[in-house]
Every structure is written in structure tokens, then in C-alpha cells.
Design goal:
Chain A is an alpha/beta fold. Chain A has seven helices and eleven strands. The chains are: A alpha/beta, B alpha+beta. At the A-B interface, α2 and α3 of A face α1, α10, α11 and α13 of B.
Chain lengths: 222, 375
């Protein structure tokens, strides 16, 4: 489903190599954890997969179609990708429901967005929190709102950057359970960046990185 | 949740800045509304006065653009006018702005030819009219009576000559209500302008057509070099004070628009700079850069729309307040036309769109990966 070929991301005119010749493949429905020490290029790889950055070299493929052939990256992000961030990135002035609806704003043809958002929040166990503001929610609840937001447009895959990084262990476990449940219910492909081995152990496969290179797990074992 | 609701929420989350920006916009709009309404009112008030008198054409000096045209000797011009076709009456008028009481603002003192048609439109509320061309008496408008605290029988001193008030009248024109009227001969005498008038008013018979009026204008140009025959509308629009006040109102529109656009520009630039991470998030969540532009421009247009409405209300209240202060009473009769107010509101929205456009484009060019890393 997702594939990279010789992917590189350089900064400072090539002096800093965030990614250097990364070749990985992720299959439909897979739950992949990208691990490695700080600065190894995990988040850079996630940003490239999420089209938030452009590679210096190499190519990415989604269902065998090269990213470089995509006409509208915004539409690709909106239709195919759900993002979950470590620091939630909820908009403080919007309610829980409002935050989940943010990716649907500006889509004139989306008439049942509110129903979908309400259903997702119900699935997250947040049906009693629809009109609460982020400041009134716990860390775990906020991350569940962020997951609901990532799912609102029914994406093909979820990109999660340290989704449990700001949570205590109880909330972290709860959030991981929610992600695992959603994966099963919606047949999602999940790519998760984490430096926590306990979290990584929940994934089907672990891609381990160091100094911008993949050192293990680039391909699924047969 | 739609884009406009989201834009509205973004404005209300920073109430202090939103209020300050709206205040700046509304003050600019209020200045535009007040000055323009006064300029138009000034023009309309004079035209109303001329029209109410039943004057069809006004003969005046060609180069004169003063509030009241420069005086000239009436008898040099009158003979050439009385025999023109369709002319029923040729009536002299002399006007001065004079201080008649130390505790009242300067007032218009009109000298009108005794027994002429000029007096016919006035409604006498009490007392009587002057009974002869040389009778040293004054009639005053209702507003003048109020400002001067005078009633019939009281004395008023003009240029050292004390005369009794014999009547109080009402006119449909504010400028006349705030004026003192004497016979022409009396004003000429008091102001040392014997035989002089500012204008000669021509009343034509009812059969005069537009082409007849055009013919009369042409004959005046041909037979009276240095003089012109114009309609009251033309006289007023050529008036220097009307021109200056219109120029001032145009300058105010220009300056207030520039300042307004800059204020919005600055506010929106600050706003997007504070919200870089949020804008990055929106782009990451699949918002098209066009949608980000729409959001920012909607916010700035909402800001100026609200500022425009408040500004219009402020401008109307300010002008009405000015009309009632002692110094200005009887001198301004502001005109607020609905299309003008709508135009001002449209202007304020346009300011918002232009002021918000660059910040919006800047926001839309945000790189989501960098923006999301920003603290």
C-alpha cells in the first residue's frame, strides 16, 4: 500500500541528512511502528509519508502510484490520511465535536459530517463530552478526540507521531487500545512513530531506524 | 461547523484585539459618514433654500465661488435681464454672515427685495412682515429666535444699528430658519453696499421650457460679460465651501480607507503569526490553501463589517450631536442616504478583503511540517 524508494531528506544544503536512502514497504491493514533514538529520522519519514514535506531524493508510492504524480496533495491528505500528533493539536476554542469536524470544513458536499463525528466520539467513549472544550478534557480524552478527528474522513491510513508520548501509562494503554480497535473496525493501516518499546510491541512490525537509515524491519517477514 | 462559524470563533477568542481593531475601523468609518453627510447636507440645504424661494435661475459673477457670490451693482445688470423672454421677476439678494449677539454663533443676515416673490414661501408664525422697503425692522427664523433668545418686540443690533424683531417665520430650509431677514435696501445700507447684491434671482413664467432656460443662460453669457446665469444646483455645486467640504470628505474616505486597510493588515498578520501552528495543522488535516485564504479573509471581512456597522451608527450619532451643538445649529443639516450608507458598509468589507489578502496568502504558504514543530 505504501512504499518508499531510496528516500532522502537533506537540510543545510546536504550537510544534515535526516533521511538517507530509506526503502520500506507497508501493506494494507498493517500496524507498523517506526522506532529509533531521538533524531534518527522517524518523524521526518512520517512527514514525508504524510506529504507534509517534500523529499530531497527518492520517491514514495501509494497503491503503486508515485506521490509525485498526485495532483492535489491537500485532497490526498484529506481523503487518505488521518494524522494523530503527540501534543494533540486540538483547537482550544472549539468544542470536542467542533475539533472532530475541522477536517470537513470547506467541503460543501459533506452533509452528514456531524452524524459521523458524533458516532466516532461515541466509539471513543466521549459521547458525554461533545460540547466540552479541550481545556476541560484529560490528556487521554484529548488524544481520543484527535483520533476521532483523524478518522472523520474515513482515511486509508493513520499516521501517528508519538500518540502516547504525552500520556501517563493508563491513558497511553487506553489510547493504544482505541487505536487497535479502530484498526480492526475500519481495516485501517497504521504507521506509528514511537520510542517506547512497550508501545512498539503492540504493532505487527517494527521498523527500526538510526541516523536516517532503516536498520531493520523494512520489509514484512514472509 | 462551517468556515464562517470557524472564522467568527477565531475572532471572538481574542476579544481585546478584535475590539481594538473594530474600534479603529469604526472611527474611520464614522469620520467618513459624518464628513460626507455634512458635506452633502450643506449642499442640499443651500439648494433647498434656493428651490424653496421659487428661483429658476441665478445671475452672478462668473468667477465667484464664495459661499455667497461676490457683490455687484444690481442696476448694471438688471436692465439686461428684465426684458429677456419668460422672465417674470428679477430680484436682488444680499447676504452676510454676521455676529449679532456675543452669546450666539455668527448668523446669516439676508437682505431680500421688499414685496418680491422671495418672501412668499416663508410661513409667518407670529408678528408681521416689514411694511416698506426702508422700514428698519427684522424678521427672524424659528431657529435664529431660539439661538438668540429673541421674540417679537425684542431689539437686535446689527453692525451698530438697533432694530426691533417684528416677526418670526418658519421655512422648509434650515439655512433660512437660522437666519435674520431684512429688506435688501436696509442690508445694503447697514453693510455699506449700497446698490449691491450677491445674486439676482430670476423667476420665469410657467411656460418656460428647458430649452428656454438654456437660451436665457446663453443670452446672459452673450450680453453680460463677466456674469453667468445658473440654476440653484449649479450655484451650490460651484460653491467653494461645498467644494472644500466635498474634497475634505473625499480625502477622509481615502485616508480612512488606507488606515483601515493597514489596521486590518497588521491585525491579521499578527493573528496568523500567532496561529502558525494551527494553520499548519489545518493544512496537515487536508485543508486546501484556498480554504485557509478564505478563512483569513472571512475573518478580516467580518472584522471590518462589524467595524463598518458600528462606524455608521457612530457617524450618524456624531453628526446628529454636532447638529445640536450651539455653534453648529442651523448650519448643518446632514443628509444620510441609504445607498451611501450601504456603500460605506461595502467599502468596509472591501477594506477587510484587501487588508486580509496578503496575510491570508502568507498563511496559505505555511509549510505544515515546520508550522507543527513551532512552539
Amino acid at each position: 500500500m505504501l512504499r518508499t524508494h531510496n528516500l532522502a531528506l537533506h537540510f543545510d544544503e546536504g550537510r544534515t541528512k535526516a533521511l538517507d536512502g530509506v526503502d520500506i514497504e507497508i501493506f494494507e491493514g498493517e500496524f507498523v511502528a517506526i522506532t529509533g533514538p531521538s533524531g534518527c529520522g522517524k518523524s521526518s519519514l512520517l512527514n514525508l509519508i504524510g506529504t507534509l514535506d517534500n523529499p530531497t531524493k527518492g520517491e514514495l508510492f501509494f497503491c503503486n502510484q508515485p506521490y509525485s504524480a498526485l495532483q492535489d496533495l491537500s485532497e490526498f491528505r484529506r481523503e487518505q490520511i488521518g494524522f494523530v500528533f503527540q501534543s494533540f493539536h486540538l483547537i482550544p476554542t472549539l468544542t470536542t465535536l467542533g475539533n472532530v469536524l475541522v477536517p470537513t470544513i470547506g467541503r460543501s458536499s459533506d452533509h452528514n459530517a456531524i452524524d459521523r463525528a458524533s458516532d466516532l466520539l461515541k466509539l471513543m467513549g466521549l459521547e458525554s463530552r461533545l460540547n466540552h472544550f479541550p481545556g476541560q478534557l484529560s490528556g487521554g480524552e484529548r488524544q481520543r478526540v484527535a483520533i476521532a478527528r483523524a478518522l472523520i474522513n474515513d482515511p486509508a491510513f493513520i499516521l501517528a507521531d508519538e500518540p502516547t508520548g504525552s500520556l501517563d501509562s493508563t491513558n497511553a494503554t487506553h489510547v493504544l487500545d482505541v487505536i487497535a480497535n479502530m484498526r480492526l473496525k475500519k481495516s485501517l493501516t497504521i504507521v506509528m512513530v514511537t520510542h517506547d518499546p512497550v508501545v512498539a510491541a503492540k504493532a505487527d512490525r517494527e521498523i527500526c531506524m538510526c541516523d536516517g537509515k532503516v536498520i531493520s524491519g523494512s520489509r514484512r517477514n514472509p | 461547523m462551517n468556515l464562517l462559524r470557524f472564522a467568527y470563533d477565531n475572532l471572538t477568542r481574542r476579544p481585546a484585539r478584535t475590539t481594538l481593531t473594530m474600534t479603529a475601523i469604526s472611527l474611520g468609518i464614522a469620520a467618513i459618514v459624518a464628513l460626507t453627510a455634512i458635506a452633502w447636507g450643506f449642499e442640499a440645504s443651500w439648494q433647498k433654500a434656493n428651490d424653496a424661494r421659487g428661483t429658476d435661475l441665478i445671475v452672478t459673477r462668473l468667477a465667484s465661488e464664495n459661499t455667497m457670490p461676490s457683490p455687484f451693482i444690481a442696476e448694471k445688470v438688471r436692465p439686461a435681464l428684465v426684458n429677456l423672454p419668460h422672465v417674470r421677476q428679477v430680484v436682488g439678494l444680499l447676504s452676510e454672515m454676521l455676529t449679532v449677539s456675543y452669546d450666539a454663533p455668527p448668523m446669516f443676515v439676508f437682505g431680500w427685495e421688499f414685496n418680491s416673490y422671495l418672501w412668499e414661501h416663508l410661513q409667518l408664525l407670529e408678528g408681521r412682515w416689514p411694511e416698506s422697503r426702508n422700514e428698519p425692522v427684522i424678521v427672524i427664523g424659528t431657529l435664529a429666535a431660539e439661538l438668540l433668545h429673541k421674540k417679537t418686540g425684542d431689539m437686535i443690533e446689527i453692525e451698530g444699528v438697533e432694530m426691533p424683531v417684528v416677526g418670526i417665520f418658519q421655512s422648509s430650509a434650515l439655512v433660512e430658519n437660522g437666519a435674520l431677514i431684512l429688506t435688501l435696501q436696509l442690508v445694503q445700507q447697514i453693510t455699506d453696499k449700497t446698490g449691491k447684491v450677491n445674486v439676482l434671482n430670476l423667476q420665469l413664467d410657467s411656460s418656460a421650457s428647458d430649452s428656454d432656460i438654456a437660451n436665457i443662460k446663453q443670452q446672459v453669457r452673450d450680453t453680460l460679460p463677466g456674469y453667468t446665469a445658473i440654476t440653484s444646483g449649479e450655484l451650490v455645486s460651484q460653491n467653494a465651501v461645498v467644494r472644500i467640504s466635498k474634497a475634505m470628505s473625499n480625502a477622509t474616505i481615502l485616508i480612512a480607507s488606507l488606515v483601515g486597510a493597514l489596521v486590518v493588515f497588521n491585525t491579521m498578520l499578527m493573528s496568523i503569526s500567532e496561529r502558525t501552528r494551527e494553520i499548519g495543522l489545518l493544512l496537515a488535516l487536508g485543508w486546501h490553501p484556498r480554504t485557509v485564504i478564505k478563512l483569513i479573509v472571512s475573518e478580516s471581512a467580518m472584522l471590518t463589517f462589524a467595524g463598518g456597522i458600528i462606524g455608521i451608527i457612530l457617524g450618524v450619532l456624531l453628526t446628529r450631536g454636532l447638529e445640536h451643538i450651539e455653534l453648529m445649529r442651523g448650519k448643518i443639516d446632514a443628509v444620510f442616504s441609504f445607498p451611501f450608507l450601504l456603500g460605506v458598509l461595502a467599502l468596509s468589507i472591501v477594506l477587510g478583503i484587501f487588508g486580509g489578502l496578503y496575510p491570508a496568502i502568507k498563511a496559505a504558504r505555511t509549510r505544515p511540517s515546520q508550522a507543527l514543530r513551532q512552539e
